[in-house]
Amino acid sequence: MQPAFRTEALSKTYGEGPAAVHALREVTLEIPRGEVVVLLGPSGSGKSTFLNIIGGLDRPSSGKAWFGDQCLTEMSERALTQYRRSHVGFVFQFYNLMPSLTARENVELVTEISNDPMDAGEALRLVGLEGRLDHFPAQMSGGEQQRVAIARAIAKRPAVLFCDEPTGALDSTTGRRVLQVLNDVNRELGTTVLIVTHAAATAAMAHRVLHFTDGQLRETILNETRADPAEIEW
Amino acid sequence: MALTILHRKLGRDLWRIRAQAFAIAAVVAMGVMVQVMMAGLTDTLTITRDAYFERHRFAQIFEPLTRAPNSLMEKVNAIPGVLTTEGRLSGYGRIDADGGEPVQARILSLPGPAGLNGILMTAGRMPVPGRSDEVILLDTFAAARGIALGDTFGVTVEGRHQHLRVVGFARSPEFLFMPAPGEFFPTDGRFSVIWMERKAAAAVLDLDGAFNEVLVLTTRERPRKAVLADLDRLMAPYGGGAGYVQDQQTSARFIEEELKGLRQSRLFLPPIFLAVAAFLLNVTITRIVQAERREIGLMKAFGHSGAEIAGHYLELALLIALAGAVLGSGLGVMAGRAITGLYMEFYKFPYLVFSMRPGPFAGGLAFSLLAAALGAAIALRTVFRLTPAEAMRPPAPPDFTHGRIGFLALLTRPLDQPGRMILRQITRQPFRSLGTIAGVAAGLALNMAMLMIYAGFDHTMAVTFGFADRSDATVSFIHPVSRDVTHEIAHLPGVLEAEPQRMVPVLFRNGPITHRGELTGLPDPATLNRALDTSLNPIPLPANGVVLSRGLANLLALHPGDLITAEVTEGRKRHLTLPVVAVSDTLLGAPAYMRLDALTRAIGEADRITSVALRTAGQPSAELLHALRERPKVAGVSVKADSYAAFRKIADEGAGQMRFVFGAIAFVLSFGIVYNAARNAFAERVHELASLRVLGFTRAEVTLVLAGEIAVLVAIALPLGIWLGWWLANLIAVAFSNELYRVSVSFDLPSIAKAVLVVVAAMLASILMLRRAQDRLNMVAALKARD
């Protein structure tokens, strides 16, 4: 089976000359479909930069990246927008919901522009928020807001879900609940889930763990047995 | 004061929001500019007029009469309250310029020992005593006609033709604003004044040993009206009795009208701009304080007091206002000087230096700073309330629960999600949205009202020169002549139609309200000069009664059915009481129309006329003008094309420039408001916009969310602004109408379209600038930032 992502000597440099920062140095890897992949590493290790490039939010300085057989690094701005619109979902540390829209409307924001979306209510049910459909972000807890963000990300039935520090702003109980939801999404919808985090314990729930240091992929670990997110210790 | 770290931050903050700061400063600048310009012009005109009047001892009372012996002056001097007085000789003659139409000239004796109504020599010398052919000529007329010192020209006075030599040029406070008889606006080459030595004037005007006008300066001890009443009584047996005070003298009156207009604009314009600036600063500072919660928390944690931090943001607001005030002062001086130049041209002042007293500048500065402080103060309450701990936490998402209830829920139901975002954003901060709407509406209204007033100018010209007055020229006579002259003139070469007219100078009276004007007698039916109703249909003149122009009816507070008193000030000086039969929609001048036969009968001068209106084949020919020059009783010929050109010149020069200035002001106001609204919305919603991009919305779709909010606000502001503009136009029309010119406004669609276009252009410019900012937006950075 073709991998979800493939990269070849992917590099990203910010700035020039002596002040240049090498955020990513020649990363070559493959990510199979349908896995939960956790990207681990300290701040500045390049994991977020990697995620942003294969998520179509940023462009590399050199190297190539493919989504299936589409070369992301050769895509136009317009094509990248279309890629984000159709194939991938994002979850960020700070939820980034529209405060002026209710939970259901935040999800509908995406389903309105998607080809084959699930019902907004259905997406919210998947994340356990069927009772909060008509609440505004201001009326919800941080964990609830993050689950709305996940519902919004999966409602378009994306092939891949990108999560950048999804539990970073949450307490441990709420964080576990959110990881549980991501796990459910992977299991029930077959969505490839990429989670960037520096909470090492999260690695236990992954099929595959990618360790980043100084902009390089240091190590790839395949988990023989995966832990249930509910059992993860913080 | 040493530059603290906070000052350095201030400088950087200002640089960061420079475009917004500039837009706000520009709005402040417009307010200060109008204030400095209007105040300066008011001062300039007032100071110059007062100095000019005083230096040349401009009379406070004028008493024209037929003829009185010089010995009578002793009795005039004895009237209580008279400071000094002079009996002068005054009459009319006709300058027969080569080729052109005859021009009417006022003939005056040179000021006597008392120096009343003194003249200002601008070139040449005084006539040598005994040289009766030497005269001084009004300098603006000489310049327009190309007459040089030493030239001779022909003059016809009382039927006698003679040649005079120009030895000097002069001007006088008496002739600052002097339209030729039968015309509405002054034209340099169409009216002149000839000053002669007293003896020479007496010979020409046949007034040896006598005088026919009394000029008086009064003391402060008695009211002028009381002195005038005594003088009227004394002079009644000598053909006097219809004197008037300085306020009613043509030049003095029109300068005062101009001043009235300036004072009114000065009262209502600057506050609009300063209120808008205060609002903009309020919204902007609120936004900045919101965005810098964390910094404020940090500063408080480090031990800065709430007052110190609030002072920091207040300084930001004050600096912007200060920059605006300085810019506005400069622009005000520039605009004021430009308009002073126009005034110089229009009113014949010998000098006019734009006044720059410190008062208006200080006032403009003080009010701008006050407006800025007020705007900022409300926003800065938050700074005091914020505790360091609270400030360090990210703000809770803004509450939009209002969006689920009531009318708004109904309104948003059919919309897509971006549509709902737009509507809920607008309604969440209703005061801010209303402020934006009100500001944009004000800018639109201001521009639209001024455009409508100027369109009214064009309408006035079309009605006056196209419908009311259909003649090509008007011949006026020195003294009333027999109506039969009409037939003689009708047979002159090129004349297609001739229509007799009678002008009778009167004092109109309705209870305590009086007005010096004229009764205009027209044949019935009149074809060349007509009274028109609002639909531009001619009003038939009644056999008995008078048709008042709307300007005069308003002035005298009269309506159809009322009675009006008209005290004739010449000839037999009869007092007529006439029913007001109708009101005509006359726009230029303030005539009162009567049937010619009824009028001449009423004043006891049956069938005597003072002018004849002509319709000619094409422009009046040189042959026709020559034939009219040959007739000694003709005082002057006014060619309609010249009147039209004079009016057009005023409309194009003065009003044309003001039209442009107001367009620019409206653009600055609209742009300042719209751009600030857009910029603040953008800054507050960077995250949302970045999120939309991440979710797969295209740049255009994201722009639409932001532009949509602005567009909705502008769309609401447009009808409101049009309504406000229509109201304002009518208000201005009433305030600026005078007896010379009635400002007419109509719901003029091109004016509305132009004003709307300015607002839409400001909106598009703002959106384009935001689009550029949006394109530079780093999606990832925006999303990772906490707030």
Automatic annotation (TrEMBL), chain A:
Give the keywords, sorted: ATP-binding, Nucleotide-binding, Transport
What SMART domains does the record tag this protein with? AAA
Q: Which family does it belong to?
A: Belongs to the ABC transporter superfamily.
The coiled-coil segments of this chain are none
| Pfam families found in the cross-reference section | ABC_tran (PF00005)
Please identify the protein, giving its name as recorded: ABC transporter
* Record domain ABC transporter: where: 5-234
